[in-house]
Amino acid sequence: xxxxxxxxxxxxxxxxxxxxxxxxxxxxxxxxxxxxxxxxxxxxxxxxxxxxxxxxxxxxxxxxxxxxxxxxxxxxxxxxxxxxxxxxxxxxxxxxxxxxxxxxxxxxxxxxxxxxxxxxxxxxxxxxxxxxxxxxxxxxxxxxxxxxxxxxxxxxxxxxxxxxxxxxxxxxxxxxxxxxxxxxxxxxxxxxxxxxxxxxxxxxxxxxxxxxxxxxxxxxxxxxxxxxxxxxxxxxxxxx
Length: 240
Description:
The chain is mainly α. The protein has helices at residues 3-11, 17-26, 31-40, 45-48, 80-102, 105-114, 120-142, 163-186, 190-213, 229-238; strands at residues 57-62, 68-73.
């Protein structure tokens, strides 16, 4: 994480004071300067207070000299939007884990060669998947959700290096796009809608990208209804 990324994450409340100072120190900023920046740059109050928009996750800050950020699950979600954001967090973490498994050029090229894809197109696929991982990480930070790698998830459980794995990603991205659309319908928070709207479009585009690589229609069912958290969990469970 660069200095700029650390500042953005801190201002959004995505990382705590201590982690912010540590990340700046790793990036070459002196401890004294990092503490000064931490004091001068105050996180978004709503995010730092552990508001419910973080999808049922509490970010608690303890007031010691350097600050701490302890991320702990709260009570069960109390609103449809919270429940949906919890499902979003699970899906995004699964996608990041799974995409990270195949982003190695040798692994991905083996999959693409099975489909008869090689050369510049294959090279572009590696870059596109790396960009997808970065985009998903940004979504977690912007929505105040937590990066929680899983030792085993629905995507990673598909061990075989085959086009089937690309189909799994298309299914999860498609379900994620549907759930984002569902949140847009459920929320009355304009700012939340503005944050989530672009992600619904991006998730749909990423699903279409994987379907296109597989030689399938990019938008198989554009009239498909919005997904619920249960629908998304069902997609993840189906490939476990």
